[in-house]
């Protein structure tokens, strides 16, 4: 028999999810200001305890029935105001989701970015899409960058026949880990095996901090964002995270079906510099772009893959002429696919 406490908790969950299903969430001013609003959504607890995700929204001046949902990458959160404004100018209501344990959604008892299966993020995306639909948006573009691109790809594949989106945009999707081939063949299988019993063991991905320095205004870049939420040196991940990402990438390698139009964009070349130089402004310092392009061909469905000359890892943070080209490509494609 349910106790009164459990009855109240059960009622709260029903009311919470009914509200979300109809887009009834409460927004507050976001840390970005400038008309951006955010809503914190309480999700069911997991192996670390309480869980939330955060929806960030800015709507078009004139009423629109189409929207974009942006999913950030690893060691990341939504801060790209210029990107949002570009979508608004094109008539898209803009939404972003800070996934659980990332950015605005991180809670003090959690390890940053901690995940054991990328499907854990599906609840956050389901929630955001329910809100978007509930707020009157009939057409939706699902967009993901880097790890968010990998998540969006698998989500789109696992929601075939139940899509609440109309097209998928992938900005430098993390279809492979940029690990030396020798390590991939020797060390990686051992780490993945160890992760089965010891998912909480730490692992340093060794991401080049110079990439962050190429972006941030206090170093060599032009963008202002929180170094607390997106530090130059990414905190170590757990082996559970490594296994989750590896398993997801293997699924892509084996082929995934997506029944909506897909646009895959990536930089034209990778760079692997150990010291700072302006070359960081001209390529992808995180992923092997050749492997990304190769694995993107394993998508079963209507897809287009395009390399961006001079593009950085996050293509919309590239130098001005390059990102102008990126936006032109995105919106020309979107006009055909998100009508």
UniProtKB/TrEMBL annotation:
<dbReference type="Pfam" id="PF12146">
    <property type="entry name" value="Hydrolase_4"/>
</dbReference>
<keyword id="KW-0378">Hydrolase</keyword>
<dbReference type="InterPro" id="IPR051044">
    <property type="entry name" value="MAG_DAG_Lipase"/>
</dbReference>
<protein>
    <submittedName>
        <fullName>Alpha/beta hydrolase</fullName>
    </submittedName>
</protein>
<dbReference type="InterPro" id="IPR022742">
    <property type="entry name" value="Hydrolase_4"/>
</dbReference>
<feature type="domain" description="Serine aminopeptidase S33">
    <location>
        <begin position="64"/>
        <end position="268"/>
    </location>
</feature>
<dbReference type="InterPro" id="IPR029058">
    <property type="entry name" value="AB_hydrolase_fold"/>
</dbReference>
<dbReference type="GO" id="GO:0016787">
    <property type="term" value="F:hydrolase activity"/>
</dbReference>
